[in-house]
């Protein structure tokens, strides 16, 4: 196969096109989401921790790291920052001193109650290029794609 034919084959490969389009769409969406969160006084990681605790209740630091894909060192740094701002607090586990929970404080809840509705509205704007049926189809297809070839 010549170099020219190999290039044409790559250009016609729907798997490669899908990966490129997904990457560009993800980057575009996340830039807009991150900009919105910054305008609300938080960074993306801080917001992710706050949002998790606000909607799902107290979690261990380890579970927070796993859910938002942070290393233990990074989660400690983020929790320290949010704790210093009095948005969250650490709760030691009475049964296992190695385990620490984090919970949102009243101040943190007030902040989330203030900023989350506007953030949600911004997400609606960002995703308004699709109607509800298309959004559900995209969710289903991306979920299928994300679980199709997982190593067991």
Automatic annotation (TrEMBL):
The protein, known as: HTH-type transcriptional regulator MhqR
HTH marR-type domain location: 12-147
Residues in the signal sequence: none
InterPro entries registered for this protein in UniProt: HTH_MarR-typ, MarR/SlyA-like, WH-like_DNA-bd_sf, WH_DNA-bd_sf
UniProt source species: Virgibacillus dokdonensis
PANTHER family with a match to the protein in the record: HTH-TYPE TRANSCRIPTIONAL REGULATOR MHQR, TRANSCRIPTIONAL REGULATOR, MARR FAMILY
Keyword Transcription: yes
A GO biological process held by the record: response to stress
Gene Ontology MF terms in the entry: DNA binding; DNA-binding transcription factor activity
Keywords: DNA-binding, Transcription, Transcription regulation
């Amino acid at each position: 196969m010549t170099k020219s034919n190999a290039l044409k084959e790559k250009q016609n490969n729907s798997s490669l096109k899908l990966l490129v389009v997904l990457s560009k769409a993800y980057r575009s969406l996340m830039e807009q989401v991150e900009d919105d969160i910054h305008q609300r006084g938080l960074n993306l990681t801080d917001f992710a921790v706050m949002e998790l605790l606000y909607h799902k209740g107290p979690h261990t630091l380890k579970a927070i790291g796993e859910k938002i894909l942070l290393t233990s060192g990074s989660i400690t740094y983020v929790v320290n920052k949010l704790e210093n701002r009095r948005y969250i607090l650490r709760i030691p586990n009475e049964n296992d001193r190695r385990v620490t929970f984090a919970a949102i404080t009243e101040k943190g809840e007030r902040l989330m109650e203030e900023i989350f509705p506007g953030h949600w509205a911004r997400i609606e704007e960002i995703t308004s290029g699709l109607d509800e049926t298309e959004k559900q189809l995209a969710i289903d297809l991306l979920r299928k794609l994300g679980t199709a070839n997982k190593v067991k």
